[in-house]
Description:
The protein has 332 residues and is mainly α. It folds into 2 domains: 32-85, no CATH class; 103-283, MetI-like fold, CATH 1.10.3720. Helix content is 78%, strand content 1%. The chain has helices spanning 2-28, 34-44, 50-64, 70-84, 97-132, 137-151, 154-168, 189-226, 229-236, 241-279, 284-294, 297-325; strands spanning 89-90, 95-96. The protein has a two-stranded antiparallel ribbon with strand order 1-2. Strand 1 and strand 2 form a beta hairpin. The relative contact order is 0.14.
Amino acid sequence: MINYILRRLLISIPLLIGISIVSFVIIQLPPGDFASAYQSYLMNQANLPAAEAQKAANEYRRAYGLDRPVYEQYFRWIKGIVTEGKFGYSFAYKQDVGELIAERLPRTLFLAASAHLISTLFGIVIGIYSATHKYSLGDNLATVFAFIGTAAPRFFLAIILVYLLVIRWKVPYVNRFTSPIYSFAPMSWGKFMDILRHTWPVIAIAGFGGIARNMRVMRGNLLDVLNAQYVTTARSKGLRESKVINKHAVPNALHPIIMYQGTVLPYMLQGELEAAIVLNMPSLAPMFYNSLVSQDIYVSGGFLLVYSVLLIAGNLIADIVLALVDPRIKLN
Length: 332
């Protein structure tokens, strides 16, 4: 097991390097850079003459190395990460990118992990019910729900929720994690419940599609297992149907869904990304979107690198959990 983990970690190093190169090149492809946006701001907002604004933008490029070739900018960025642990400087936020990510990453992880937990638990329970009540009214309703959950755009659901919360229900502080009275208060049960009252829309939207996906996977796996010979043998011995399902069928049907959890993690992160951008929650998602719009390249690159690490870690954890659940699997 230890050798397998070490081998996976070593393999992930060149993978992360490749992802960082591709990401950095892609975010450099649009014409212009942050200095171009800065020049436009000076001309339109500060009312500077075009010549002075262009001169200021050129000085900005030289000061932050934006006039250098892409490969040189990339190597400087990677060198800072490896040697100093710094992800670069955010031109828009006037702050170190590592500090920005460290501040907002726990919020993003909380939202994505909560949605992941809810989607897994509810998806498994609904999938078990659907498989054990095949073609019943409940199974048909669950199937319709699964189709809607996998097809409905999450940004559209977020827009509907914003309309209901702000226009219809007049809910205050929709785009915050806490109410003002809890902003600087230490963690307590009251603050935790206040956080849930503010974050449930993002968790619900991100987890909605996950419930549908997990339900479909669990239903299909359990239907296959229920037709297996050892399940028929267990029934022929006179075991109660609940014991056959809970003790023999469900544990074996969980193996594929555990493997599926490693690949569903980016789906949860994507759901959090879409919902948080629409609701303008103070997580990594709006910051990433703003960095793409303003071409704040080090924020975008740091965001993609962190998400890549989370994806690799999620797949590794899923493989380890699967090996612990099923002793037949050897991680060689």
